[in-house]
Amino acid sequence: MPTGSVLVLGGAGDMGSGVVEELVKLGVRVDIGDINVAKAQNIAQSLRDMGEIGVVRVDASSREGLIAVVKDYDVVVNAVGPFYKHGYAIAEAVIAAGKNGIDLCDDHDAAEQILKLSDQASKNGVTYITGLGWTPGLSNILAKRGVEELGGEAESVDIGWFGSAADSRGLAVIMHLFHAMTGEVPMFLDGHMTMVKAGSSGMAFEFPVVGKLKLYYVGHPEPITIPRHLRVSERVTIRGCLIPEWQTGLAKLFVKLGLTSTTERVERLSNFINKIEDVFRTGGVALSGVKVVVGRGGRKVSYAAVNRMRKLTTAPAALGAHLILKDQIGERGVFPPEAIIDPNPFLEKLEAMGVTVSTE
Questions:
Q1: Structural domain of residue 216, as residue ranges?
Q2: How many CA atoms lie within 13 A of 14 on its CB side?
Q3: Which of the two ends of the chain, N or C, has the fewest CB atoms closer than 10 A to its terminal CB?
């Protein structure tokens, strides 16, 4: 395998193929690692004019098989979701193989477990960034930028996101959504980590393009990681919603009826929704977004980015992999984005890749 090569696990999926495309645009040698070889080959063929893309069959559920494959690469990007199901096992295998890695992990419980691999990663001399996508990922980096703008400390970080069924595809994103909206989820409130009811505490957020939306508590990693790495004294919260907004109400109804009360039920419901997902795309807007509001002493700074979900998610992951390849991120261990990425140069590079952040 040529030096400077990246393997994208789940590279035949919606988000994984986006990471592949972004890496190729950056001039990186990429292989798609996926169990669906035919689909991976079609994607590689569709991008052939942009650069060299290989295809490797990988069963990400086989630890030994995964280790055998990833050892040939410099950086591994994991886009295999849902992450509450696959995130930890894949991260452990990549780190055990002594390879640098990045993932798109957006589940709070999986992120907590992946972060516990930091000592092993440090011992093996590797860098692993977990949650370098849209939210978490871009959201964490904007939170860090805001804290720095307010003098290096803040009282509050409030994160809001919206996603559209017209802007995503695939089973994993549906499973993640139901997982994030079920049961109790972590928030940093009154200076302490607190478990709250998912789907509660509605709050209005104003976004560019789409206007005002009502968002609710969801389970994501940011309230866990941000207070550990940024000086935020009182509050770190994250809320989300779907557009059109009736879809948020429907998702909350499914949760209330107990249709997501176990992982088996989540999978069953998600498979059903996935089969009829075109119904939910009808009339939808193919946009997603994130907004981060940071406060200190009555002063607030806020940042927002609205784009296609695929672009918002995959550009940060690809850029992170590129920086690791170029030895511009060299700390050893497992980190969330805010612990290891300098926000201003990173955001400048993201803008050149088509992700624009507006400031209020």
A1: 139-308
A2: 17
A3: C
Residue type, 338: E
Q: Is the same domain home to 199 and 161?
A: yes
Residue 98 CA: distances (Å) to CA of 1, 101, 102, 127, 349:
16, 10, 13, 9, 28
CA distance 355 to 270: 30
Residues 302, 232, single domain; the answer is: yes
CB atoms within 10 A of CB 3: 7
**Claim to verify: residue 107 and residue 164 sit in the same structural domain:** no
Q: Are strands 232-243 and 75-78 parallel, antiparallel or unpaired?
A: unpaired
CATH code (residue 293): 3.30.360.10
C-alpha 243/C-alpha 236 separation (Å) is: 24
pTM of the prediction?
0.94
pLDDT per residue as tens, the chain (360 positions): 444 699 999 999 999 999 999 999 999 999 999 999 999 999 999 998 998 899 999 999 999 999 999 999 999 999 999 999 999 999 999 999 999 999 999 999 999 999 999 999 999 999 999 999 999 999 999 999 999 999 999 999 999 999 987 777 666 678 788 888 899 999 999 999 999 999 999 999 999 999 999 999 999 999 999 999 999 999 999 999 988 787 888 888 888 888 888 888 888 887 887 776 665 555 567 899 999 999 999 999 999 999 999 999 999 999 999 999 999 998 999 999 999 999 999 999 999 999 999 997
Looking at the fold, whether 119 and 215 belong to one and the same domain comes out as: no
> Environment class of residue 172 by beta-carbon count within 10 Å: exposed (0-12), middle (13-18) or buried (19+)?
buried
Tell whether 169 and 117 lie within a shared domain.
Answer: no
